[in-house]
Amino acid sequence: MFKTFLSIIINMANVIKLRKGLDINLKGKATSNKIKVNPSKEYALVPEDFIGLIPKVVVKEGDMVKAGDALFVNKKFPEVGFASPVSGTVTSVLRGERRKLLCVKVQPDSKQDYRDFEVKETASLDGKAVVDLLLKAGIFGYINQLPYAVSATPDVLPKAIFVSAFRDMPLAANFDVELEGEEEVFQTGLTALSKIEKTYLGINPSQASGALSNMKDVEITVFDGPCPAGNVGVQINHLSPVNKGEVVWTVDPTTVLFIGRLFSTGKVDLSRTIALAGSEMESPCYAKVLVGQPLKDVLKGKLADNGKVRIINGNPLTGRKTDLDGYVGGHTSEITAIPEGNETNEMLGWIMPRFNQFSVNRSYFSWLMGKNKEYTLDTRVKGGERHMIMSGEYDRVIPMDIYPEYLIKAIITGDIDKMEQLGIYEVAPEDFALAEFVDSSKLELQRIVREGLDMLRKENA
């Protein structure tokens, strides 16, 4: 009886209850149905998917590459390469203005050939051996770091590593669907990361009784609360805040699978299961794809034919606008499609009662419909940029121990000392996604935070 009671207390100690936040219930959530997308005639790796990277191409048109060979590297840290998802022939090194590298395209072989990195027993390795293998295999760059929310560099090891195993942004993919059948691979990836430094795994209450709750070599914490409880930055803020001079690594759960496959098979396998979601998807579902696969192949026959559609590489709040000429990104966990809304005409505009429009402040009557109502939202801002009002609306949706409105003001004014004092080292642009959604001033908060982080990174270089 006493042991049972003690176990309950221990479990309760690993639960963090968050009250701040906002769940936005959008129409078009992906069902658990999985489809397999046919192999494409061309794949492309896009440097823009890896924030903070200055890419240097290490291949040229006509080169033959194996899956796992580097296509480009980090110019400042050449040991950090980015692996080709397929074997084949390099067909194009596409550049934009001022010779900015846009992507490297590879035409795949009919039979795939993988670079052999040999199967490794993680239990016998130390942290340096793990990092060296990730660098050699071109997967290390998929790890991000705080401060600055950029692709990690191997010159400074972290004080801790964080993995958030759940996503709670609107229409985000459920990682549990991707994890099915790969629990052992995920465990291998976590064990490898734990050899580098102490690793934290964040899960939600619904995962507390599943396979994720039994993972070893990590410290598991349940985060119970509304969006953005799944943001790894929020979890870091509550477990091990980042101070000046400190570094933590953040790893997407799919990247943990990439790492686990590398150690289990000795091969680079960048396949992932993404959600195809949104009100403009014919049948929202999950699709097995490869990083770098063209969206025109992934979305073929999937989009509703009812006018202009916004295709988003990611979720509606933090994703990047794209089109059918885009590619599955290195960190893409969902492709969403919502209405553009630029041809919408509403009688009497804002004065209408609106039962089908979402409102945080009960400006519309839709709040009477209950929390389970699904909304079809478009991309309209519904208002112009205006003066910033200190109303505390950011604070209500950011469950972090910071003063978000003051931090945004410090970034806008370029006050580096204030930015440091107000906690910029522990935030990422995605932590302000909900604040941007509810912001009555219509400011592009994620862009502002990104500019502030870049400013600070340049200053401290």
Chain-wise SSE layout:
Elements: H1 2-13, E1 15-17, E2 34-36, E3 43-45, E4 55-57, E5 64-65, E6 70-74, E7 81-83, E8 88-95, E9 101-108, H2 127-137, E10 144-146, E11 150-151, E12 160-164, H3 175-179, H4 183-196, E13 199-203, E14 219-224, H5 232-239, E15 248-251, H6 253-265, E16 271-277, E17 285-290, H7 295-298, E18 309-313, E19 320-322, E20 334-339, H8 404-413, H9 416-421, H10 433-438, H11 445-460
Parallel strand pairs: 1-14, 2-17, 12-13, 12-15, 13-14, 16-20
Antiparallel strand pairs: 3-9, 4-6, 5-8, 6-7, 8-9, 10-11, 10-15, 16-17, 18-19, 18-20
Helix pairs in contact: 2-4, 4-6
Largest sheet: 7 strands, mixed
Biggest sheet strand order reads: 1-14-13-12-15-10-11
Which structural category fits the helices and strands?
Answer: alpha/beta
Specify Rg, calculated over alpha carbons. Answer: 22 Å
**Chain-averaged pLDDT:** 92
Strand content: 15-25%
- N- to C-terminal distance: 57 Å
Low-confidence stretches: 1-12
Overall morphology:
globular
| Alpha plus pi helix count | 11
Helix content: 10-25%
